IS110 family transposase
Amino acid sequence: MKHVIAFDISMGKSYMVVYNALKKCQLEKEIAHNRPGFMDLKKLIDDLIEGYDEQPHIVFESTGVYSRTLERFMQENNYSYCLLNPLEAKLQCDSLRIHKTDRSDAHRLALTHFTHERRIETDSNDVYRQLKRLSRHYSELDDELSVTRSRLHKVVQETFPELENIFTTKSELFLNVVQLYPHPDLVLNHSKTIIKNRILANTN
């Protein structure tokens, strides 16, 4: 490899370092995760490709929301890159005796790239990551739903507890009845026919 570009990512920006094959830092700077910042980054990468007939090795750590902007930039411009999970990055970088600073992580990632085999991201990796994100999103929604059901249960127990003995609490019918008749006094105000028609009208 002729060059390594490493990024230490934070909210809305990255600290970038460029190392040559002799493991010497040729450039370090902060780039903003916006159009001008990415235009400058694209020019830097393209200049290295044109000058050395090889794409520089690119490496950064996955930091969730913050790193996705940089990932998207790499994918849209068809740059290959290595994406490390936080534990993997820590284990590899802790072997270097570099004084820990806010900017040292980028240097650590670059220097360890010369001695570690790292997986290059591909389209299949991207599909896998999307599936993981969807799975995580599903789990978050399921957790929120459990909390909401628990709150509803507490309220119903205080206002109309008999409803939970009549309907399955996870059913759409139960939710519709709770909305229409959150208290038994409301049931007493209507005839059986009106109650039946209201429930039917509000149930698919």
Notes: Strands lie at 3-10, 13-20, 25-32, 57-61, 82-84. The first helix runs from residue 35 to 52.
